[in-house]
Amino acid sequence: MKGEAMSQNNRSNFDLTTLNQLQQIQLTGDKSIDSTLVDDFINFLDVSEETSKTYRKNLKPFFTFLEINQIINPNRQNVIEYKRYLAELNHKPTTIQNRLVAIRQFFKWLNSIGFYPNITENVKSMKLNHTFKKDALTAKQATQLLHSIDRRTKEGKRAYAIIYLMVTTGLRTIEINRANIEDMRNVGNQFVLYIKGKGRTEKSEYVKITEHTLQAINDYLQSREMIKATDPLFVSNSHNSYNKRLSTRSISHIVKAQLKAINLFSPRLTAHSLRHTAGTLNMLSGGSLEETQQLLRHKNLQTTLIYSHALERMKNDSENRIDNFINQSHE
Questions:
Q1: How does pLDDT run across 199-224, given as a tens digit for each residue?
Q2: Which of 10, 120, 167, 242 is the most exposed place for a label (fewest CB within 10 A)?
Q3: CATH assignment of 8-112?
Q4: 3-state helix, strand and coil shares in percent for the chain, rounded to the nearest 5
Q5: How many CB atoms within 10 Å of residue 53?
Q6: Alpha-carbon span 213 to 167, nearest angstrom
Q7: Number of other CB atoms surrounding residue 249 within 10 Å
C-alpha cells in the first residue's frame, strides 16, 4: 500500500493512531522510534549508519510533540508550532534546523509515495549565524598551550601529540579517533596521515605530518607497550578501557583540560577551536584561501571565506581612525 498512490480520501483519513498500528511506531518519549515506516524512509535515503541514527534522533521529538498535544492530523501549522516550541526550550538554531530538515525529508518522502501530503512546504528555515561557533587561539595562545603540557608522563606525551597534530592539520576529533598507526605513510618525501574525513566511507585523504608533529607522535608511541600497525594511533589509559581506541569525548576532554590549565575557560574554546586555529594561523602566515580550503577539506569555499572575512575585519582599523580623528579635532 505504501508503494502505491492512495486516494485523497485515504490521505485525509490518515492519523497517528492508525499509523502506529500499521507501522508499529512507538511515539512515547521513553521509547525510541522503531517503525517499519521510518525504516523504509531511511532505507530510501540510503545513508550511513551514523546518518541513520541522526535522522531517528531528530524525528523522535516531533512524534513525541504530536502525541503530547494529541494532534491526530498534523498540518503545516503544527510544524510551525513545533518550531516555536523548540525555540521556547532554548534549543540552538542549528539544533532546530537539523530537526526541521529531518521532518521535511520525512514528509517529502511520505508525499512521494502518496501516503500523506508534504506539510512542511513553505515552512521557513531558521536564520543561522554564518560564523564559527568556536573561537580560534592566537599564535601566542597556541604556543603557550603546547609549552604548558608536561611531556614526562604518558598522558602528557599523548596530549602533546594530539594537540600538535590538531593545530597543524586542522583535524576533527572524529578524525583523530579513527586514525590507526598504519595510516601514517610516506607520499614521496613527505610523511602523511591518511584519514577518514567527515562523510567519507574510506581513508582516501591525507594531511601532512610536520617534523615536529612526527617527533611528538613517535615520542608518545614509544611510551606504549607492544604496539601493532593496526592499533589505534591514540588509545585510552583508563582502567575500564585501557589500550582501546580513544573516544571523541576523551579527546575533547584532553584538549579542554589543557586549555583550562592555561586559564582559558571560555565555552567558545574547545577541541574544535584547534581546527579554527589551524585555518586562521595558515592564512595569517601567508596561506591562500584555496590552500586553507584544501587544508581543512571544506567542500564549499564559502565556509573557508568565513576565515578570510574575519581576518579582513580585524585588519579594518576604522574604529581607531575615527577615535584619532575625534581627538585631533579637539586639539
A1: 677 888 999 999 999 999 999 999 99
A2: 242
A3: 1.10.150
A4: 55, 5, 40
A5: 12
A6: 10
A7: 11
